[in-house]
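User: Predict the complex with adenosine-5'-triphosphate.
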Amino acid sequence: MSTKSSNVITAEDPRYVLDASAVVAGYDNKIILQQLDLRIRSGETYALLGANGAGKTTTLSLFLGFLAPRSGNVRVHGIDPIAQPAEARRNLAYIPENVALYEHLSARENVAYLLDLAGQKENREGIDHALTAAGLDAAAFDRRVGGFSKGMRQKVAIALALARKVPALLLDEPTSGLDPQATTEFNRLLGLLREQGVAILMVTHDLLSAADVADRIGFLDAGRLVEEVAATGEDRFDVRALHRRYAGQAERTA
Ligand code: ATP
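Assistant: Here is the predicted structure with adenosine-5'-triphosphate placed in the model:
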């Protein structure tokens, strides 16, 4: 029996909010992930890098409960996303590469409606607070999101994650197609969620952005996590060394 202290936030394993242990997974008769061990703590940002087809999106699918592991265990806040999909999803927010919103609704209405779908009631003040924290200009709150840029859409999605107070956030290629200013702003928002204790798993090809925000960077190569590096000291990561690793890996995969 496990002992639990008051600051423990996970249901099963107090150390990890996102936890994949010895996972083997794939599609039909093709194995994609081979003995994947990936664990992310509360307040930790993890960037998963790898060449095209390495299995990054497949990893997100595991936590989302879209794909069942053939062996091994996957837990979201201590919950098995295959056995209890609704429960697991209540504990995470997912921001895909292209954020899907209700185009004819305003930013405010989108957050209110999506919170409602998640079974959460929030008053206007709470929604405005989340949109403001996510850096959306107040003038845009009542505008239909149909005309929003990718960066603005992400802000609405971040506002939703902030309002839902989820313990885990999954991001697929969040900075692809963002200009440098929007990338910097996005990274600042991730910092905000991190400070709230959210465990963040970000799948990306953007090494600079990863080095900027991540506490750990993992390199996935043909379904295997071949290396993990942690940010250390003020310089965080040695970007040139990371680039050599990443480029070398992509070359081997090609
Ligand atoms: P990228 O950087 O290109 O997005 P990735 O690292 O996210 O790549 P995945 O999308 O996880 O890679 O794909 C890993 C492998 O699994 C690829 O060979 C892909 O063709 C295959 N795959 C992905 N989804 C399916 C599916 N639904 N059915 C069958 N094979 C799939």
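Strands lie at 18-27, 30-40, 45-50, 71-76, 92-95, 168-172, 199-203, 216-221, 224-230.
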